[in-house]
Input
Amino acid sequence: MQDPKRVLTISYSQSGQIDRILNSICDPMRAAGIEVICATIQPKRAYPFPWPLMQFFNVFPETVYEDGPEVTLQTADQTDLNAIDFDLVIIGYQVWFLAPSLPVSSFLKTIEAKKLLSGQRVVTVIGCRNMWLMAQERMKAHLHRLGAILIDNVALTDRSHSAMTFLSTPIWVLTGYRGPWLSGFVPRAGVPDADISEAQRFGRAISDALTERDTNDCSPMLVGLGAVRINDKLIQSEKAGTRSFAVWGKLLRWIGPPNSRLRRLVLCFFVLFLIALILTVVPIVALAKAILRPALRKRIEAECAYYSQPSGETHTER
Ligand SMILES: Cc1cc2nc3c(=O)[nH]c(=O)nc-3n(C[C@H](O)[C@H](O)[C@H](O)COP(=O)(O)O)c2cc1C
Output
């Protein structure tokens, strides 16, 4: 009899959203007889949820510079993960300030990550507001450094209008309550339940691929399933945001450690900058892009095709 296929999931989630997404993906795999082992990333000092306002913004410089806490990888029954030969690793993560969340980037720098991911086929699963492209670029760089092979990416995002999620996501993470607020004017935050439940289709495709195809096959398993949607209006905003975050992050880290009073003061200016950026750059870039769309069509298509890899058809969201 053939050895059962084994899949390891590695995740971090504050509200449990990523875990719900991973469970939805893994249910059909378990039903197909695949052994799924779930490991969670635990920071030595837990981050709060809901976040106190100051702490929420104060984590920004360290997130941008990936200067995170010590973390450990834990399973429910202390499984020795290094003793198991996995057929696939699924990494579930969320985005903080256009980068992978700090616990996740910290994990990717550990020796444990090197041992588990080197030479391994990896599927990344993102659950965030809607700006994940630059975070995934960083994730790709980490996986490349670790010698892992990224074969698929699933990105599930909040479906409400961007302008609304700029309100609903902070309200959610600062209060712990997803909404809706103001009689539905501010919609319920997070990945819609229907999208989480429909993520089962990815699990079915993974089960089929793992059981049917050659063990050395590293081609994507999720093409044609709508694993990612690229909102081309956000590409330039993410790039501009990442550049300015690098400058602000450097300045704030130079001013002092997270508990320094001066840093907290300058952080207030960063928050004002961030609000101005959101209210000006994002709509201006979107408007400029709409006007220039016919001239930029080829470039936009090429960018969408690039960011949708490895799993996406070049379907874009406008
Ligand atoms: C500190 C912080 C920064 C965030 N920055 C972003 C971001 O840049 N882009 C984005 O799409 N979502 C962002 N989010 C939303 C998260 O990606 C995620 O959707 C939410 O925190 C729930 O994740 P959970 O699985 O940890 O509960 C941020 C959340 C937090 C707490």
